[in-house]
Amino acid sequence: MRWLRYVIGLIIALTLHSLLERFFPNALAFFNPYLILVVYYSMGGNLLGAILAGVVAGLVQDAYSGAIFGLHAFSLTFVAYIVASVNSRVVLRGPIAFGGALIGSVVINEVVIYILVNILMKQKIGMFEQSLLLKTAMTSVFGILVYQLLSLFLRDEPIEAMRKRAAY
Amino acid sequence: MQVAVERRPTLIFLLVLAALFILMSRSTETRVLGETRTLFERTVMTVFSPVPKLVNTVGQSFEDAYHGYLDMRAAIEDNRRLHRDVAQLTRDNLILRRSHGDVARLRSLLSYSEQFSTPTVLADVIMLDTASRFKSIILNRGSDAGVEVNDPVMNAQGLIGRVVLTTRDLSKVQLIIDQNASVGTLLERTRRQGVVRGNGSGGVQMYYVPSLSDVQPGDMIATAGIDGIFPRGVPVGTVVRASEGKDLFKTIYVTPGVDFGSLEEVIILHTEKIPPEIVRYTP
């Protein structure tokens, strides 16, 4: 069930990605739907599941964006592992905790990407701080909205539902 | 053993990161070489391609519908504007055509009026009554413009009538087709004189031309200048038929030179009248 949710979530993220690319080409610079999906999934605390979710979501994002192939997969896997590690030790519940996790995740994700681009392409991302600030704010706000909607319609605390079956 | 199991995810995590780093390095190299997509990347794209394709198709349909709607709105707006333009242009065209007609008519009227040495007044016909028993027109010039009773009225086609009544700014003209109007005329070809008068049915006839006179259809009739009202030489009409009358005179049917149904502008000729005492004087 969790994997089915993940696949549906990935398809929605890809749909959103395609829609934004088509109608608002600059919107993806300030908003990352894949990150919301990965953080949401990783808050279940399942490390292996989180790694896989990060890799798959990252590869899809890479395939449909102009970035180096594997860049987002790397950063999302990194984020997913950290979020899952934290959640396997501390129980984080509710939209505020999710928002906090998202804020941290966006920052980590962007910093990882910044470093990787620096290492691999010997380039610096322009206006990094401003972009990071905007991306953090917008992704967090949108992520909390998605979290609330999912809680409302699934009638189940998503993290709790995942935690019951968390392996590690 | 327990520790190894607990560390397994971390190990997998590190291996995955290493694999992804290699993938990225490979991708960076291919980018440098100009190849933008590796086989693995193409495979991932192919697997998930239905989603962007579907989004593209749906988005394209919505975009087409939206642009179609916008185009339709624009077409409707264009259509309305063009209708307004057509109405405006039709109106303008009408005004121009009327002005063009006015110019031609006024030009011929003006050149005609310049022939006369006596003062002339140009006037517009503001009322036309040729259907009733008394054929008359009302002009927009009166005594203030110098118009007097018995002033001849004409246009470029010929004689129209004479002023029978004036106010300060209007004057009434008795047409030559009125049964009570009489004009001293002559046949231009033979110089035979007669009187033209309305026959009561909208036409005119020439009276008092002896039966032995030479009158042919097509003969031009003009004023003779012998009645003390109309000057000599103003065209009156053309003979259409001349037959032997019941008595000593011919019956001559005349087509007036003027089309009384389309009078617009006229010339009022201010002639010098013969004083009444001279007219009435009997030796």
Range of helix content of chain B: 25-40%
SS field, number of helical segments of chain B: 4
Secondary-structure content class of chain B = alpha+beta
Q: What sequence of helices (H) and strands (E) makes up the elements of chain A?
A: HHHHHHH
The percent range for helix content of chain A is: over 70%
- Would you tell me the overall average pLDDT of chain A? 83
Explain the layout of strands and helices.
The complex is a heterodimer of chains A (168) and B (283).
Chain A: H1 2-23, H2 33-42, H3 47-63, H4 71-89, H5 94-121, H6 128-154, H7 158-163
Helix pairs in contact in A: 1-2, 1-3, 2-3, 2-4, 2-5, 2-6, 3-4, 4-5, 5-6
Chain B: H1 2-33, H2 39-48, H3 50-113, E1 120-129, E2 136-139, E3 152-155, E4 158-166, E5 171-175, E6 182-187, E7 193-198, E8 204-207, E9 220-223, E10 235-244, E11 250-256, E12 265-269, H4 276-280
Antiparallel strand pairs in B: 1-2, 1-12, 2-5, 3-4, 3-12, 4-5, 6-7, 6-9, 7-8, 8-11, 9-10, 10-11
Descriptive overview:
The complex is a heterodimer of chains A (168) and B (283). Chain A has 168 residues and is an all-alpha fold. Chain A has seven helices and no strands. In chain A, helix 4 (71-89) runs antiparallel to helix 5 (94-121). The two termini of chain A are 18 Å apart. Helix content of chain B is 39%, strand content 26%. The relative contact order of chain B is 0.11. Chain B is built from four helices and twelve strands. Chain B has helices spanning 2-33, 39-48, 50-113, 276-280; strands at residues 120-129, 136-139, 152-155, 158-166, 171-175, 182-187, 193-198, 204-207, 220-223, 235-244, 250-256, 265-269. Chains A and B meet through helix 1, helix 3, helix 4 and helix 5 of A and helix 1, helix 2 and helix 3 of B.
Could you name the key traits of this structure?
heterodimer; A: 168 residues; mainly alpha; 7 helices; disordered C terminus; B: six-stranded antiparallel barrel; six-stranded antiparallel beta barrel; 4 helices
